[in-house]
Design goal:
disordered N terminus, 8 helices, mainly alpha, about 170 residues, Globin-like
Length: about 170
């Protein structure tokens, strides 16, 4: 796999792990959707303070559980990659509510581009699984079933949008 494809996959993995916070799902029972509030609170009170630890756990977990994915990062400068992921997390949090439509379009475009990097539909759940695990580890006892469910649903939506984008 070429260096460009590896870098593309690296950016894909970073972006998918943070972009999900823009997506919304419908209200239920006429109750307001508190998911974005909970996600923002989780980011502000847990993730931001432990961003370095989060990305360390994320990549270590992904590479240990999925050695084939680790091989895709063999020529990637992981120090830079981890910094890109942290910067992307901060960027998303800073722009969380501004334009979810743009984010969805961007995710579709990324899905389309990443098909050229060899990204397969089965790569998406790997990122979700490892990011949820890393978040739960850095949050410790603050990580509740409700928080996990919200992040899990958002990551699933990102997967769907990017996979659909890859088909366009």
């Amino acid at each position: 796999m070429s260096q460009n494809k590896l870098l593309g996959l690296a950016y894909f993995l970073a972006s998918i792990s943070i972009s999900f916070v823009y997506l919304k799902w419908p209200k239920t029972n006429n109750q307001p959707d508190r998911s974005l509030d909970i996600m923002e609170s989780t980011f502000d009170n847990i993730i931001a303070a432990k961003a370095d630890e989060l990305v360390e756990i994320f990549y270590a977990t992904m590479f240990a559980r999925y050695p084939a994915v680790a091989a895709l990062f063999a020529k990637v400068d992981m120090k830079k990659q981890k910094k890109h992921l942290i910067n992307a997390l901060v960027f998303v949090r800073s722009n969380l509510r501004k334009d979810p439509t743009l984010v969805i379009k961007t995710l579709e475009d990324m899905g389309k581009r990443h098909i050229n990097y060899g990204t397969l539909p089965e790569h998406y759940p790997v990122v979700k699984e490892c990011m949820l695990f890393a978040m739960s580890k850095v949050a410790g006892s603050q990580w509740t079933p409700e928080i996990n469910n919200i992040w899990d649903q958002k990551l699933s939506l990102v997967n769907t949008v990017m996979i659909e984008g890859s088909k366009k």
